[in-house]
């Protein structure tokens, strides 16, 4: 992968005209690259590399009374794996991921396809769909605190008019995670739709017209033309969505704190609780190492997708 | 000879489809509509009509007055502005410099370093809250605004974005400037930075939005009330509101926190959308 990147994007433009390059380099001060990169590298060192190493060290340290390190071992991992709450958090995160990513992507594609034509009505509807994207997740949470309020809340108040009885969405362990999932879909689907819209714009209209002339129905065209050509876009959005599943947590902290009975406890909330409320930094570090490993393998596996997608221009 | 026009007349969406879409959009926007309506509506104590979306055309400012009385909004706005703009100012410098190096220079270990930078893309500070908090404490920045800002000063994503942006600028420009006797710093300042403006603007919008909205990290590294940012301040209203059932107050406070971005988005929608697309990852 590194090889491909080197040849296509870094070396190629230079090889084309070495003469000018040499002339330009005469003005560039010696060691310029070092000084240009130094500030970023120093900051990344302090706030990314050292913290990763530190989490790793802390995870494999054994602590005695008073937090003194007494040796190294996998004790923290043993304690982590022995904690049923950790497994609950992991499986909740899985359900939460599946429950948010799949519906948001489907919604994004459907809305993108339906709203792709640039009419005035469509522009307005798109704006409405995208508004939640710029809201702070915390503000979404405070709004949903009311939306989901049993009895008087927005949802129950209007469902009651349809004759549906009040539900304690966030208070019931069976529904709480789904309420959180609904909130996340509302917050993120519009963001993903923007990428779908950009991806749709890149599909040549001639393809659809030719297919229409051949008598292909709208459904056939969608499944045979639109969807296959959207694949790179969707792959990119899928990666972003999966990262969001692991890193977005504000709504859980504000609304449920992981409860009731751990039903909305997802991994990052588990880490936050272990570190902040239970003061068990060793176990928190072990869990951090696991989520860092998960995220890193996700980004390594999708590096190509990320690179391709990151310079989307509309 | 003209080619025959093969474009078929587009079939407009049927009325049913339009009605369905509008219905969907209406349901989608109810939380926001409710926020607008509830923030200015007087609700008698004990009323169960807090969820009504019908405005009663007698706007009241009481909820905003309460919000200002209960929360130190002036301080929170100021802190949030300092944090978001402070982060952005430093980022613009670091990402321009590093982005230029990766786009234009050759040095040993460049690829390795580039991947080392990319590592930070997915490892946003929330994931590293535990070790990052330790680092902030060690640097003596705990419970300070610089402590909230510091981990974001370098942005792998910004570096990547600027690298892409610089690559779209033809080298000829730089060479012409050099032939005209421009120094290296003049070239960066007077030529490259203005040409890279679209990239810088796209990055700025995403950076401002995401740090305005940030919650967990400022919550972790601050303690005293005078270091609170808007998002952290907002959560104090939810707890009190749930007990007092004062939802007008929550609506008003939420609007105060989210309002500036909502207005900015409504005004500069195109730029927002373009920079979201341009950037993908926040």
What does this structure look like?
The complex is a heterodimer of chains A (314) and B (282). With 314 residues, chain A is mainly α. Chain A folds into two domains: 72 residues, no CATH class; 227 residues, MetI-like (MetI-like fold, Orthogonal Bundle), CATH 1.10.3720. Chain A is 75% helix and 2% strand. Chain A contains 15 helices and two strands. Chain A has a two-stranded antiparallel ribbon with strand order 1-2. In chain A, helix 6 packs across helix 9 and helix 11 crosses helix 15. The longest helix of chain A is centred in the N-terminal third of the chain and has 31 residues. Chain A is globular and about 75 Å long. Chain B has 282 residues and is mostly helical. Chain B has a single domain, classed as MetI-like fold. In chain B, 70% of the residues lie in helices and 0% in strands. Chain B contains 14 helices and no strands. The longest helix of chain B has 32 residues. Chain B is globular and about 75 Å long. The relative contact order of chain B is 0.13. The N terminus of chain B is likely disordered. The interface between A and B is large, with 115 and 118 residues.
């Amino acid at each position: 992968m590194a090889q491909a990147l080197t040849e296509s994007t870094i070396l190629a433009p230079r090889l084309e005209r070495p003469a000018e390059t040499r002339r330009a380099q005469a003005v560039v001060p010696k060691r310029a690259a070092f000084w240009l990169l130094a500030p970023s590298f120093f900051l990344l060192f302090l706030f990314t590399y050292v913290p990763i190493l530190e989490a790793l060290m802390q995870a494999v340290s054994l602590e005695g009374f008073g937090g003194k390190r007494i040796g190294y071992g996998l004790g923290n991992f043993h304690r982590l794996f022995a904690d049923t709450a950790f497994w609950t958090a992991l499986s909740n995160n899985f359900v939460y991921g599946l429950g948010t990513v799949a519906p948001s992507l489907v919604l994004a594609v459907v809305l993108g396809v339906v709203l792709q034509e640039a009419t005035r009505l469509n522009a307005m509807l798109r704006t409405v769909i995208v508004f939640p994207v710029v809201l702070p997740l915390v503000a979404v949470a405070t709004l949903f605190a009311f939306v989901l309020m049993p009895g008087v809340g927005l949802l129950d108040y209007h469902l009651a008019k349809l004759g549906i009885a009040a539900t304690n969405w966030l208070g019931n362990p069976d529904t709480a995670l789904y309420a959180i999932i609904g909130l996340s879909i509302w917050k993120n689907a519009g963001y993903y739709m923007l990428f779908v819209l950009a991806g749709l714009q890149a599909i040549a209209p001639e393809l659809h017209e030719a297919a229409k002339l051949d008598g292909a129905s709208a459904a056939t065209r969608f499944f045979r033309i639109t969807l296959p050509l959207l694949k790179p876009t969707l792959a990119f959005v899928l990666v972003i969505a999966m990262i969001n599943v692991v890193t977005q947590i504000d709504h859980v902290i504000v609304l449920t704190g992981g409860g009731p009975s751990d039903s909305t406890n997802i991994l990052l909330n588990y880490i936050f609780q272990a570190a902040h409320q239970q003061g068990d930094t060793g176990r928190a570090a072990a869990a951090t190492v696991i989520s860092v490993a998960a995220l890193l393998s996700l980004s390594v596996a999708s590096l190509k997708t990320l690179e391709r997608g990151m310079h989307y221009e509309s | 000879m003209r080619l025959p026009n093969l474009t078929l007349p587009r079939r407009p969406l049927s009325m049913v489809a339009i009605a369905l879409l509008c219905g969907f959009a209406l349901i989608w926007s109810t939380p926001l509509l409710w926020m607008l309506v509830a923030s200015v509506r007087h609700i008698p104590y004990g009323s169960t009509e807090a969820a009504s979306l019908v405005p009663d055309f007698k706007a009241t400012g009481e909820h905003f007055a309460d919000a200002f009385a209960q929360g130190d909004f002036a301080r929170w706005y100021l802190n949030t502005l300092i944090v978001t703009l402070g982060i952005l100012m430093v980022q613009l410098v670091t990402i321009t410099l590093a982005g230029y190096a990766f786009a234009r220079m050759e040095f040993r270990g460049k690829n390795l370093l580039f991947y080392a930078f990319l590592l930070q893309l997915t490892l946003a500070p929330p994931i590293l809250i535990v070790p990052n908090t330790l680092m902030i404490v060690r640097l003596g920045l705990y419970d300070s605004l610089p402590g909230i800002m510091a981990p974001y000063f370098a942005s792998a994503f910004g570096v990547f974005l600027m690298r892409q942006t610089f690559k779209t600028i033809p080298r000829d420009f730089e060479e012409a400037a050099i032939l005209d006797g421009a120094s290296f710093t003049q070239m960066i300042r007077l030529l490259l930075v203005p040409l890279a403006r679209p990239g810088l603007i796209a990055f700025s919008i995403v950076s401002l939005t995401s740090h305005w909205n940030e919650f967990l990290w400022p919550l972790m590294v601050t303690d005293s009330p005078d270091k609170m940012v808007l998002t952290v301040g907002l959560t104090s209203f939810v707890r009190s509101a749930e007990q007092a059932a004062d939802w007008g107050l929550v609506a008003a406070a939420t609007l105060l926190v989210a309002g500036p971005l909502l207005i900015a988005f409504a005004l500069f929608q195109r730029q927002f959308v373009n920079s979201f697309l341009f950037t993908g990852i926040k």
